[in-house]
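To whoever is on call:

I kicked off a structure prediction for a single chain this morning and the downstream step that reads the tokens threw a length-mismatch warning. I double-checked the sequence; it's 114 residues and nothing unusual in it as far as I can see. Pasting both halves so you can look.
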Amino acid sequence: MPGRQAGIAQLVEQAIENRRVPSSNLGPGITTRGIDPMQQPQAFTDRIFNNADSFAQAFDEAWQEHARREPGHGLSSADKLELILTCVADHPFCLDDPGQARQVAEFRLRLLGL
């Protein structure tokens, strides 16, 4: 029965691959519209880690939240940077290395053109 085992293994492999790749074999009523593949599940975005990536994410969220709350704030970029750094001052990365956190924040501003 070696041929049959290979056939089952191939079917399992194909089924797993089909779950990863959107295809035309979606059942009726199943759609992928409105799904952002880059969006992180909520369970992961609430996690805070003591590293530059986690800090950059928190900084970006605070910057965007401020822009939504106060669109006509009139602050210079330097003043807004100071304000946002105080908003994320309790982040573990900022607590451990405030100088490095400032560099990450300044890099994000340059990278995003803010």
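Update from on-call: the warning came from a stale cache, not from the record. Cleared it. Sanity check on the structure: The chain has one domain: 2-112.
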